[in-house]
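Async update (no meeting this week)

Hi team, since we skipped the sync, here's where things stand on the single-chain job. The sequence we agreed to prioritize is pasted below, unchanged from the tracker. I ran it this morning and attached the output directly underneath so nobody has to dig for it. Comments welcome in thread, and please keep replies under the output.
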Amino acid sequence: MSMLRILVATHNPGKMREFRQLLAPLGDGVCFPPDLGLFVEVQEDGQTYADNARKKALAYVQTGLLVLADDSGLEVDALGGAPGIHSARYVQGSDADRVAALLARVRDVPWERRTARFRCVIVIATPELELYTVEGVCEGYIAWEPAGEGGFGYDPVFYLPEYGCTMAQLPPEEKNRISHRARAVQSAIPVLERLLACRG
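Output:
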């Protein structure tokens, strides 16, 4: 009998790596669409992170497993909260292209106005179509230039004053303690534990 119990609805290698570590307290029953040979095309055209996460969760829930889906983004105050829900599609190309585009837009913004946050919204869907939503936020600044080899996305320019480095310079275990995704998962785990207990 399969021990799979939770499907995390992402194909993003960076997210898969982080979710695998963050959900380790739940044991070995966590899987991802590639593990099951699944690929469902989901249009992330919602107005909010929760909209997009909900669409992804519901698209995969026909597996009969609990499904966890997230949507996240970088909100830069000097840009009115952009790129926000469009973070992954800010410009065509690679993560480095998106980072370069962001830095170009804030080039003349002084340090004290370079405040920003990463936000992650997680939606959990049950096969009975019950939905649960949690959120995590990590505050920081937009650095002058990229630094660090870790993480992915905008991590090389997300500066954490309390650590004196960017998110990409943190050891993975530290990032997985304080990041927006880590904080959202910390809120999601009690919900998942309760749902798993109900499902036996």
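Quick observations from my side:
The mean pLDDT is 94.
The CA atoms of residues 78 and 103 lie 12 Å apart.
Reply here if anything looks off.
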